[in-house]
Structure formats: structure tokens, C-alpha cells
Amino acid sequence: MVMTIDEYAAWAATIAKVDEHPSNERLSYLGLGLAGEAGEVAEHIKKLLRDDWLDKAGLVEELGDVIYYWACLCAATGQQPSELLKASAAKIRRRISEAASR
């Protein structure tokens, strides 16, 4: 089954029990979960630098965990992930254009 990023976020929100008005505790839990999983991604990259070997399967698994917490935070803040991705791409394009014009 193929899922859009918006469908995934809605599904993840049900798993994480995220509603329209999450508590500070729930938001903190999700934010810390995202930070922790990003740390796991960084750990894989560190080991690549140290050992000159990348555990791609492990990295991919951690990236999936990052996406889960990110999607939950999108839902918790009322953001459609697809719209957030569009805005992010526009911001990056703007920065590239500004850098090229300097």
C-alpha cells in the first residue's frame, strides 16, 4: 500500500495519540523523540567516519523513526506535511538564489 506523507502523518498521529490540542508534555515527548532519533542518525554517520563503513539498513531504520516523530509533530501543530515540504523547498530555493547572486 502506497501512502502519501499526509496520510502517513494522520496515521502516525493516531498511533501517538496526538489530538488537535496536544499538551505541553505530549509536544515535549514528540520533540525529544525527534531529537533522540536524529541523534541515532548522527551516530550512524559518526561510525561511518570512524570505521569507514555505513550500516545502511540501520541508518534507514533510524530515518524512518525521524519521519515518524516529525510527522507526529506536524499533526500536533496542525500542519500538513506536504505543505510544510513545499514551504521548505521554496525557502531552500530562495537561499540558493540569494547565495548565487552574491
UniProtKB/TrEMBL annotation:
Report the SUPFAM superfamilies cross-referenced here.
all-alpha NTP pyrophosphatases
- State the signal peptide span: none
Coiled-coil regions listed in the entry: none
Supply the Pfam families for this chain.
MazG
Residue span, NTP pyrophosphohydrolase MazG-like domain? 32-95
Its recorded name reads Pyrophosphatase
